[in-house]
Amino acid sequence: MSETSPKLRAELEGIPTYKPGKPAAAGGPVAYKLSSNENPYPPLPGVMESVTTAACDFNRYPDMACSGLMDELSERFGVPLSHLATGTGSVGVAQQLIQATSGPGDEVMYAWRSFEAYPIITQISGARSVQVPLTPGDVHDLDAMAEAITDRTRLIFVCNPNNPTGTVVRRAELERFLDRVPSDVLVVLDEAYREFIRDPEVPDGVELYRERPNVCVLRTFSKAYGLAGLRVGFAIAHEPVAAALRKTAVPFGVSQLAQEAAIASLRAEDELLGRVGSLVCERKRVVDALRSQGWTVPETQANFVWLRLGERTLAFAQACERHGVVVRPFPGEGVRVTVGETEANDIFLKAAEAFRKEL
């Protein structure tokens, strides 16, 4: 019998590992998890009831077309059904987009640092990542990104607000950038945190997509809607792109429980807006407190804050853990801290103040 291993694709060598937010230790000193940008609230009204009902039938396959959810999204956003596609969270749809556009020899561009799944899903496809550094203010450098476009560029991610920095690009600069992008290059506006934006100068990507066939908008139910564990996201794009997404989707990938929960969440918008409003108020309180302690905090329009700590990053994360909260460190760069429940935020602020005094 041969002892050689099955041949695997060379592109899989050296793929970075996605690092999920560290959970709070059961029975340990850590009481709160502020490492994954999760919504601290329980499911919205009607969600548990819809999921419980759907669970009675999970011996059956889900509706592969997500018909009920697609109808709700079409009405909610005023877009044709043919312009919609669903997937296992917005990251699942992002991977489908790369599969549909890019392969060996092609380039996928994004800012860096940005969402850490981008380099992973790009390398899986065999395409080459083009990472354009953020500005000193931790914002997308759209001029540099436009200059980096080549005839091999197939897809560009613009994460707005950006994960993990929380910073945004505003309407004038984004439209100027889109005007410079060739019409055959797909621009993906990743708006996973759209509901938390309060800056009126940040455009809704759906408005931009309507007039631009090469713009695709990603949204998710994982963050503001609080369905992170059910994995459902969607894209709004013109028909050729949306059709390609439906072709590359994993059959039956979005469970019926996820579909029903998403529908119920969309129908509880008033409650959603109240919860998001509370988190936005907490965000302001956290940012103001950090700045009063002497920290430099970029303006954030997401449900998290970013502290650029460089070589002190891991020490800060460990200090937070000793106080009772887990944050998300990016070694050598900084930490991302979710805005959670008031008690968790208070513990984090105490940890940050204590760390600052020790410097």
TrEMBL record:
Endpoints of the signal sequence: none
Broad class of enzyme this protein falls into: transferase
The protein's Enzyme Commission number: 2.6.1.57
Domain Aminotransferase class I/classII large: 33-349
GO biological processes: L-histidine biosynthetic process
Keyword Transferase: yes
Catalytic activity line of the entry: an aromatic L-alpha-amino acid + 2-oxoglutarate = an aromatic oxo-acid + L-glutamate
One Pfam family this sequence matches: Aminotran_1_2
GO terms of molecular function: aromatic-amino-acid transaminase activity; histidinol-phosphate transaminase activity; pyridoxal phosphate binding
Keywords: Aminotransferase, Pyridoxal phosphate, Transferase
Sequence ranges of Basic and acidic residues compositional bias: 1-12
Task performed by this protein: Aminotransferase that catalyzes the conversion of aromatic amino acids and 2-oxoglutarate into corresponding aromatic oxo acids and L-glutamate.
The protein, known as: Aromatic amino acid aminotransferase
